[in-house]
Amino acid sequence: MLDERDEVIERIKQENEEFRHLVEQHVQFESELQRFHEMRFLTGEQEVEKKRIQKLKLFGKDKIAEIIRQYKSLHPELFAPR
Questions:
Q1: Distance between CA atoms of 57 and 18, rounded to whole angstroms?
Q2: Closest CA to 64 of 16, 32, 30, 29
Q3: CA dihedral for 57, 28, 73, 77, sign (positive or negative)
Q4: Of 73, 58, 61, 72, whose CA–CA distance to 23 is shortest?
Q5: Which pLDDT tens digits describe the chain residue by residue (82 residues)?
Q6: pLDDT tens, 35-58?
Q7: CA distance readout (Å), 17 to 6, 7, 55
Q8: What three-state secondary structure class fits 42?
Q9: CA dist., res. 46 & res. 13, Å (int)
Q10: Which one, 24, 35, 68, 82, has the greatest CB density within 10 A?
Q11: Tell me, what's the pLDDT at 1?
Q12: Residues near 51 by beta carbon (within 8 Å), at least 6 away in sequence
């Protein structure tokens, strides 16, 4: 069963292509970071790449949160207490 937050995310994903892309990208970045976490040691290049992915993931997360805030302000009726 989806909670309210999941329902909102699914609805926005259906209506907003940029949001859908950002969420997919976020999942991909998480997968790539998990791969780095599983490595015992990282080379200098791998460490730089890990930091780059972390920054991209954070930027994407901020953009996702911004889109959710905008959606909530445009559709307050969907967020009224039930």
A1: 15
A2: 16
A3: negative
A4: 61
A5: 456 678 888 999 999 999 999 999 999 999 999 999 999 999 999 999 999 999 999 999 999 999 999 998 888 777 666 5
A6: 999 999 999 999 999 999 999 999
A7: 17, 16, 22
A8: coil
A9: 32
A10: 68
A11: 45
A12: none
Boundaries of every domain in the chain? 43-76
Location of structure tokens 């995310």: 9
Q: How many residues does the chain have?
A: 82
Amino acid occupying residue 32: E
DSSP state of 34: H
Please name the residue ranges forming H helices in 1-82.
4-15, 17-38, 44-74
Q: Which residue has the tokens 């329902």?
A: 7
56 with 32: CB under 8 angstroms? no
What does the pLDDT read at residue 72? 87
**Residue 3 carries which DSSP code?**
-
